[in-house]
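Record passed on here:
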Amino acid sequence: MKTWLETAQKFVPLLLRITLGSVFIVHGWGKISGDLAQLGSTFGNMGIPVAAVTAWLVAIIEFFGGILVLLGLYTRYAALFIGLVMIGAMVFVKFAKGFQGGWEYDFVLLMISIALVFLGDGPVALGQFFKRNES
């Protein structure tokens, strides 16, 4: 007989997806709806390579990746790209500030991304609905 904890484990990916997806939808929308040319200039000042292109890529990955993660569609891929964005943020911007008040938040988001790469959508996701309809 399963305990309630064993039963509840299937909701862990959903909780992680809600957390990661909502954070990146908000941050990605802020970039997409803002001045991407200015963001590219800011990225360039931080030493981020190919800054104008990187600004667009980061905005797209954060916003649309966040939507995919939240919905549970292509979660592993979206979480992988979000994780890469977090690594970039930590390396190019946050490491110099130290852990506390620097890269601690990015580290948490990176770890959630990595967990979702391993866990996938979970059973409560649109991705599961489409998988069931494929057979």
Summary: The chain is about 80% helix and 0% strand. The chain has a mean pLDDT of 93. The chain has one domain: 14-134.
